[in-house]
User: What shape does this take?
Amino acid sequence: MAGPVRAGLKKRKSGHSRIRNQNTQIRNQISPVMQKVRGLLPQQKAAQHLALLTDWPLSTCQKLLCGERRENAEQLTVLLRSDFGRDILFVLMGEARPDWFSKYSKQLDVIDANRALKEVEAKVETLRAEVFQ
Assistant: This one.
């Protein structure tokens, strides 16, 4: 008689444990910085791209991009020094707009406008050369 009772208890216990484990799985929220990095990287194999960009282990990149791990100061420094640095800085600043950041932002706008102007001037010169040949 003891055999069948144990088998029944074992089935109930494993089912109970399985339900409890499913309910306790909580997804970590991905930090705003990593959300931005994810948006800047290609959709396919984002962790591999991040690993190549930063020289971090692939597992670290996977954990950062899925929210399992938060980025530390050293990792933020690497990201700020990367090609995505400007975007990362704007995410880190959030809604804060101290004077220096406002000036910096305006200077970046001026630089972008000058770059666009140079591109248009180069295109005009190319078209002029084609017309007057």
